[in-house]
Design goal:
Elements lengths: L1 E4 L2 H7 L5 E5 L4 H5 L6 E5 L2 E2 L3 H10 L3 E7 L5 E7 L1
Antiparallel strand pairs: 1-2, 2-3, 3-4, 3-5, 5-6
């Protein structure tokens, strides 16, 4: 997945402290789990994320699965579980 940190203006607009937006998505576990372009990841395994490097580090640390929490562009909060 292509990821980028959201700026403070977008975070304010979405009423969140920060996050990482999915800007592109190829075939893989994230897409199969239902994640889509434009989704903003706010937490990985209950840890807040604010840049793509944090997302990658937390995914690499995970042993069996990851829980992704975030928000769709329409404001709907969503949770996705991915087995590794």
């Amino acid at each position: 997945a292509g990821l980028r940190a959201i700026g403070p203006d977008k975070a304010r607009q979405m009423l969140i402290d920060g996050g990482v937006e999915i800007v592109s998505l190829a075939r893989g576990k994230m897409k199969s789990a239902g994640l889509s372009k434009g989704f903003v990841i706010t937490h990985i395994n209950n840890e807040p994320v604010s840049n793509p490097q944090e997302v990658v580090a937390l995914v690499k640390q995970a042993r069996r699965s990851i829980l992704i929490e975030g928000m769709h562009a329409n404001g709907a909060v969503a949770y996705y579980g991915i087995g590794l």
